[in-house]
Design a protein that fits this description.
By secondary structure, the chain is of the alpha+beta class. It has one domain: Elongation Factor Tu (Ef-tu), domain 3. Helices cover 21% and strands 30% of the residues. The chain has three helices and six strands, in the order E-H-E-E-E-E-E-H-H. A six-stranded antiparallel sheet has the order 1-6-3-4-5-2. Helix 2 packs across helix 3. The termini are far apart.
Length: 151
């Protein structure tokens, strides 16, 4: 498991506009962890939340961006985290960073990413060593139920 700590900085509010507000932490180095992850965000109070975590350069909106960000969509949290020091545990690698042609394609993918986080969370307490090289098979039936995409 990889853990990242950092202070939440203001972003461009794009996640909020897309329906997935994020807590942003500026990063330097560590590009080997770029991608989308299932993770846990720990607040300073010790309360933890599941999170869909994107790490990279936001290629859908910024083709030439050199700024790397950790963007955590903290599932179930609705408060203000600006200036807060967070601990983010990366638990399971979901997918590589890819540019999307439209905002709607990104939104659709984000719904799937959140569903994967919620399904993966069920096994975190019983699975050891989950991560980029660990178990990455998802129960597609449970994901379909979580996203409402059952046939």
């Amino acid at each position: 498991m990889t853990t990242i700590t950092g202070r939440v900085v203001p972003g461009d509010q794009r996640g909020r506009l897309l329906g997935f507000p994020t807590a942003n932490i500026a990063l330097e180095g560590g590009e080997d962890i770029d991608g989308v992850w299932a993770g846990t965000v720990w607040l300073p109070s010790g309360v933890r939340y599941p999170a869909a975590v994107s790490i990279g350069r936001r290629s859908t909106f910024y083709a030439e961006s050199t700024e790397r960000l950790l963007e955590a969509h903290v599932i179930g949290y609705t408060g203000d985290l600006y200036g807060t020091e967070l601990r983010v545990d990366l638990k399971a690698f979901l997918r590589e960073q890819i540019p999307f042609r439209t905002a709607q394609e990104l939104i659709d993918q984000m719904h799937g990413d959140v569903a994967h986080v919620l399904v993966a969370r069920e096994s975190w307490e019983t699975t050891v060593g989950v991560g980029r090289l660990g178990p990455q098979r998802w129960d597609e039936e449970r994901v379909a139920v979580a996203t409402g995409l059952t046939s």
